[in-house]
UniProtKB/TrEMBL annotation:
Protein name: Ribosomal RNA-processing protein 43
Keywords, alphabetical: Cytoplasm, Exosome, Nucleus, RNA-binding, rRNA processing
Biological processes per GO annotation: exonucleolytic trimming to generate mature 3'-end of 5.8S rRNA from tricistronic rRNA transcript (SSU-rRNA, 5.8S rRNA, LSU-rRNA); nuclear mRNA surveillance; nuclear polyadenylation-dependent rRNA catabolic process; rRNA catabolic process; TRAMP-dependent tRNA surveillance pathway; U1 snRNA 3'-end processing; U4 snRNA 3'-end processing; U5 snRNA 3'-end processing
Stored InterPro entries: ExoRNase_PH_dom1, ExoRNase_PH_dom2, ExoRNase_PH_dom2_sf, Exosome_comp_Rrp42_subfam, PNPase/RNase_PH_dom_sf, Ribosomal_Su5_D2-typ_SF, Rrp43
Pfam family, one: RNase_PH_C
GO cellular component terms given for this protein: cytoplasmic exosome (RNase complex); nuclear exosome (RNase complex); nucleolus
GO molecular function: mRNA 3'-UTR AU-rich region binding
Record-linked PANTHER family: EXOSOME COMPLEX COMPONENT RRP43 (PTHR11097:SF9), EXOSOME COMPLEX EXONUCLEASE RIBOSOMAL RNA PROCESSING PROTEIN (PTHR11097)
Family: Belongs to the RNase PH family.
Organism from which the protein derives: Pycnoporus cinnabarinus
Gene3D superfamilies, A to Z: GHMP Kinase, N-terminal domain
Length: 273
């Protein structure tokens, strides 16, 4: 029994040393580390190149705040949708305390483009009184554990939160120039479309990686996000990074893979909410 115990202990120590060596190599030579995995058609977290991580949506971590404001002069019947993603230092060592990081600002701008362009909440539905009063919706998401591809996850959370939002019935009174909100009557938002994003990273000009992790992201040549609506239709395609590697063929491959993933695993992602 003693000999068996000693053998088991030695084996555990050896495994721990191997793991430490692998971690050290990963930190010192991240690109080579990733290349060695991809040469075997597998990724460091054990996924296939085109395999996605499991998704679950919790509307609690994304909040919607509403306030009444005047519309823009050239858009008197349109309200405002203002998404914002916070990447605090607590979610990852790569982010520092202080003002929003450049990455958070870029992601917030991309989220705004998708939410407004796809018409998740038609801005005309946020009008209380044309030229006088409209709703402003601040959609705030906070990342609590960053592991890459925050754009896809945040879009899911924001759409889910908007579907869960109820606003008090608001009435504008011309004589007092004031908007009064009901304390009893709450109305759901008018939801137009339900976009879902599928992001892919291109590594070393040859490997297409679905749902890139935080380790993979800094090593990518570029990232392509394909947005699909609730009917499986293509809403938009966005690129972040260098010029498109591989040309139209890579773009077509990303779109095709996104449409297939939507059909097989993400088609009903919003139904449980």
């Amino acid at each position: 029994m003693a000999a068996a115990s000693t053998s088991t202990s030695a084996s555990a120590d050896s495994a721990e040393q191997d793991a430490l060596k692998a971690l050290t190599f990963q930190r010192l030579h991240p690109k080579t580390y990733l290349e060695r995995f991809l040469s075997e058609n597998v990724r460091p977290d054990g996924r296939d190149l085109d395999e996605w991580r499991n998704v679950s949506v919790n509307v609690v971590v994304c909040g919607v705040k509403a306030e009444v404001a005047e519309p823009e002069l050239d858009r008197p019947e349109e309200g405002f949708l203002v998404p914002n993603l916070d990447l605090p230092a607590i979610c990852s060592p790569k982010f520092k305390p202080g003002p929003p990081s450049d990455e958070a600002q870029v992601l917030s701008d991309r989220l705004n483009e998708v939410l407004v362009a796809s018409g998740v909440v038609p801005t005309t539905s946020l009008c209380i009184e044309p030229g006088k009063a409209v709703w402003v919706l601040y959609v705030d998401a906070t990342c609590i554990n960053y592991d890459g591809n925050a754009f896809d996850a945040t879009l899911l959370a924001m759409v889910a939160a908007l579907r869960n939002t109820r606003l008090p019935k608001a009435t504008y009174y011309e004589d007092t120039k004031r908007t009064i909100c009901s304390r009893k009557v709450m109305e759901p938002l008018q939801i137009g479309r339900l976009p879902t994003s599928f992001s892919y990273g291109i590594f070393d000009g040859t490997h297409l990686l679905a749902d890139p992790t935080s380790f993979e992201e800094p090593l990518l040549d570029t990232t392509i996000s394909v947005v699909i609506d609730e009917n499986g239709g293509l809403t938009s395609v966005m690129q972040l990074g260098l010029g498109l590697v591989g040309g139209a063929d890579v773009l077509d491959k990303c779109i095709g893979a996104a449409e297939e993933c939507w059909k097989t695993s993400r088609k009903n992602v919003y139904e449980a909410l």
